[in-house]
Amino acid sequence: MNKVTHIVSIGMLLAGSACQDLEHSRQVDNPQVRGKTIALQVCSNCHGVNGVSVSPTFPKLAGQRKEYLVDQLTDFKSHSRADPNAQRFMWGFTHLTDAQIDELATYFSSQPAVLGEASDLALINEGNAIYHSGLPDKGVSACMACHGQHGEGINQFPRLAGQHADYVMKQLKVFQQSDTRPRGAVMKAVCANMSDRDMRAVAAYVEVFPPEGEASVSPADDR
Ligand code: HEC
Ligand code: HEC
């Protein structure tokens, strides 16, 4: 198939369907379509053109570690990441080739990450302490040890900085209460004894990721 035909066929797939309609994404099953094209025409409907999603149902992908993205897309493809939202929204992408997965991961990992807006500073400060020191009494390890000083992640350890708090909270629950994430054993151990409040606090912290000390500087600052 030549390039023009590709563009036309993608255009036709997109044409008849509303943006939120999942069906067209299941039909972009041509192995010749470039990852970036899929990113812009399909993934963008939920994750944003630059990987900065608006709704916390959809995780931000901008600046996420490439290796982590490859792992997750591979796990969705094999249906081994199996929490309800993964099934509902991501299980359709079984047709992605390894090359397309690689290109998609390259595209989203190279987009600039965007931090969220701070709201509840007391909660954020609590989360800051958990992120950097863990909760030794409860056997909760410091998140920083694996997710990086600035929440930037490394290789298979995902970036957390900027991620929607509600999504982070939800995934912590998935790790704690299920075995539906195939690479989740480490995280299951980390959050085994975390309370809802602990999870909410650390989730609120990573979404805004204020520089060291900033959150405690002036609670009056309504940043
Ligand atoms: C219809 C909406 C929708 C579309 C289209 C969509 N996604 Fe997703 N995606 C989701 C949802 C919802 C989740 C979160 C699943 C969960 O809660 O486990 C997700 C999760 C992910 C994750 C895991 C992120 C993380 O932080 O663990 C990756 C990677 C991903 N999507 C990549 C893509 C790519 C690449 C495409 C295009 C091929 C795409 N998505 C298209 C809704 C969508
Ligand atoms: C020993 C290393 C380690 C520690 C400590 C750790 N994590 Fe993780 N975390 C991981 C790994 C590895 C993954 C990827 C799991 C996967 O691929 O499913 C992960 C995934 C996550 C995810 C899912 C991200 C996404 O986009 O879906 C969240 C949220 C998370 N960790 C939060 C935390 C928090 C909060 C802490 C501290 C309380 C923490 N982690 C401590 C290793 C760690």
In short:
This protein has 223 residues and is mostly helical. Helices cover 52% and strands 0% of the residues. The chain folds into two domains: 3-109, Cytochrome c-like domain (Cytochrome Bc1 Complex, Chain D, domain 2); 121-216, Cytochrome c-like domain (Cytochrome Bc1 Complex, Chain D, domain 2, Orthogonal Bundle).
Please characterize this protein's 3D structure.
It comes from Paraburkholderia ferrariae. Residues 30-112, 122-210 form the Cytochrome c domain. This is C-type cytochrome. This protein is an all-alpha fold. The protein has 2 domains: 3-109, Orthogonal Bundle (Cytochrome Bc1 Complex, Chain D, domain 2); 121-216, Cytochrome c-like domain (Cytochrome Bc1 Complex, Chain D, domain 2), CATH 1.10.760.10. It is 52% helix and 0% strand. It has helices at 3-15, 23-27, 35-47, 66-77, 84-90, 98-109, 121-133, 144-147, 165-177, 185-191, 196-208, 214-217. Helix 7 (121-133) crosses helix 11 and helix 9 (165-177) packs across helix 11 (196-208). The protein is globular and about 50 Å long. The N and C termini lie far apart (52 Å). Residues 1-23 and 216-223 have low confidence and may be disordered. Bound molecules: heme C (2 copies). One heme C binds at residues 59, 71, 130, 140-141, 143, 145-147, 156-158, 160, 163, 168, 171-172, 181, 183-184, 186-187, 190, 202. The site of one heme C has 23 residues, from helix 3, helix 4 and helix 5.
